[in-house]
Design a protein that fits this description.
Helix content is about 5%, strand content about 65%. The chain is mainly beta and about 200 residues long. It has one domain: Porin (Beta Barrel). A hairpin with a 2-residue loop joins strand 2 and strand 3. The longest helix is centred in the first third of the chain and has 14 residues. The chain is elongated and about 60 Å long.
Amino acid sequence: MKKTLIVLALTGASAAAQGQFQVNPQMGLTYQHLSSDQPNVEFRGAVGWQLGTDFRIGNRAYIQPGVFFGRNTTAVKTSLNDSVLAEGDIVRTNLRLKMLGGYRIVDTYQFDLRFFAGPTYDVLLSVDDKDDEIGWNEGDFNKGSFNIDAGLGFDMGLFTLEPSVSFGLSRVFSDNPTVKDIGSKYLTYGLTVGLNFGDDDKND
């Protein structure tokens, strides 16, 4: 998968000379949920945030690499025989590398409607057990996780809006004994607003 991202990045760089190029700084909210397959562990998502930059390379069909920094919170409750053992919030900081492909469904001077999808990779930077009750730390989580992202983009002149969803392909937790049996994966909803800078040529 890493090799695929590199190949796509090189392809995008090659296409930059042949198509329009836009830079899109964005910021917004996330809501990240962890699937749970353990009867004694309950996860509940919370609102997080993200900021970063996308690059759109191409005309009607385009490549969309990007880098985003974000923080996501998950409320965790562990129990045994209906008795709560621990309850608290886990905050994760990550760097998301994106290599998406997109298509402008509507492509006009006043308004663009885009669809995009493709692989992303999250690099885990830190983990904070906010209430010091759960006892999990950075070593209990995998250092990186692969995802498949999809979403829509709405461009109105200088401004852009993107709702999206990210489906985790990798297991969240590491092989540490206390968490090795938890097979959770990420499901993340996002909404960003941003700006469009660069070549806005509509010629296909």
